[in-house]
Specification:
globular, alpha/beta, binds magnesium ion, binds adenosine-5'-diphosphate
Length: 175
């Protein structure tokens, strides 16, 4: 008979989930502006959602909120784009991980000329590829509302993983 395992209380990763309804592109951008206020250097934000879900629209709001230079666009022809801060804050590194087959190694090979721990990294389609960049990370899942309701409605789930997000104020985004 095996000895029972003791519960891994100390090691259990903290996880915070906030669910929001976003009714328009403008509201998605505003969510980005609000979320940007919570972001710190070294943060990893992973955006998941089908094409046209609103990942880049949200990133545009993040870029505006962070006060970075350059238009945030879909990084279609580049894997990653660095947007330097205009306000002495962290740069925004916007990654399209859909094109990033090899994960972390490839990310480091990109020669981004920026220190990732000093940056805010936002990855579109990053699941399963970039988790190892940071133990703490914020997953943002964007889903279209199903059924024949308003086309512009999105359900957004923010899942903060790790101590970083436990007291970051994510819940305030819902109010
Ligand atoms: P993704 O990066 O996920 O492929 P984009 O942000 O590039 O998506 O495009 C989203 C498209 O959907 C834009 O044309 C935007 O105007 C539209 N849209 C409609 N409703 C919303 C919404 N609630 N949030 C974000 N985008 C929306
Ligand atoms: Mg996009």
């Amino acid at each position: 008979m095996e000895a029972p395992h003791s519960p891994a209380t100390a090691d259990a990763a903290a996880e915070v989930t906030v669910r929001l309804t976003v009714n328009s592109p403008e509201e998605m951008r505003e969510l980005g502006l609000s979320l940007a206020k919570l972001l710190r250097p070294g943060d990893l934000v992973m955006l998941t959602g089908e094409l046209g879900a609103g990942k880049t629209t949200l990133t545009r709001g993040l870029g505006a909120g962070l006060g970075v230079r350059g238009a945030v666009t879909s990084p279609t022809f580049v894997i990653a784009r660095v947007h330097p801060s205009l306000v002495d804050g962290p740069p925004l590194v916007h990654v399209d991980a859909y094109r990033l087959g090899g994960g972390l190694d490839e990310m480091e090979d990109l020669d981004l000329d920026v220190s990732l721990p000093d940056s805010v990294i936002v990855v579109e389609w990053g699941d399963g590829k970039v988790e190892e960049l940071s133990d703490d990370r914020l997953h943002v899942l964007i889903e279209r509302a199903t059924g024949d309701t308003d086309d512009d409605v999105r359900q957004v789930s923010l899942v903060g993983i790790g101590e970083r997000w436990a007291a970051a104020g994510l819940a305030g985004l819902g109010s």
